[in-house]
Amino acid sequence: MTDRDQPGPCPGFGGSGPDGDGWEDLGDDGQLAWYGRKIDLDPGNAALLTSRGMLLNAMGRIDEAMADFDRALQLDPTDIRALVGSADCYLLKNREDEALAVLDQALELDPWDIDAIVARASAFTGLEQYDRALAEVSRVIGRHPGDPAAVTAFMQRATTYRLMDRYGEALADCDRAVALRPDRATVWASRGTINSVMDRYQEAAADFDMAVRLEPAFAFALAGLGDTYRYMERYAEALTWYDRALQQGSADPRWITGRGLAHQELGNYAEALADYDRAIGMDTGNFWAIGSRGNLYRLLGRYDDALADHNHALDLDPQESETIAERGLTYQAMGRRKDALADFTRAIDLDPTYGAELAPYLEPGGPGDAAAPDPS
Length: 376
Hints:
By secondary structure, this protein is mainly alpha-helical. 70% of the residues lie in helices and 0% in strands.
């Protein structure tokens, strides 16, 4: 299973609390408490509700954020920030059609609102309507090519290019975003994501490190360092960064799964299994965590449990060649030679790059023949 096609960081809210010294030092919980006190004193203030919703959204508390945006819009239906924030929550829940409906309202109020246009492009990207997504952000970039306000458009276009496997163009857009806003942690993290997908791990680590220097509690960048060091097979360092990311209060199941893989590589099987279980408990459709747990079960000799997870993962994505190959290895360990051969052959048909790795298992006298006799 791969974690390399996950979306990059959302353009993110830059904060709308007090600008005085010490605001950032409060941390998320302190800022949230500040908003709570202010809203208690002025419950009809839509701007405060919207700002708290933005903070809650950034903290991953999506349902609470949506509740604040809804309250703000009841007070002021023309609050574009609340509309865009609500749409962003829908996007995080993979409810793109609802996000688009809300964004239509925002764009009726201001057809050139950059955040609304970028969010609309994100919705089209989520629907895999990539040409429409590119058209949305490109009109913003065409109108504001050198404006730092357009940095989110470059970042979103980079994300769309990445999902289209157009990595060179994605990296170029990230370079433009960094040039426009080198003070913004999210632009460095976005470029780190692209560099990582391109297997440029040293460059990725440098980008994520810069993001963390700018924003030490930026969980996405901390987890990005965890992923990058794991790809570099520096598993102990990866664990340190995953732990720091998860300490920020953003318990993303992808990061927990990544930490589980690092634990597994270090032989910490109990910790790995606990992470996989936790990630699956948070997201029962977490294909990557389910498949990873299946592989660990096979390593532990728990073949029936492994097979159940492989089958569950393939129910979610029947064409995933790596999972089919992994199930073949489990069948082989169980002595089910015919089933193993069928899976190895199917995996190669779906992805011929597995040919060299799996070919020995298909040959008489190969590794598969060393398994126990096939009971079928």
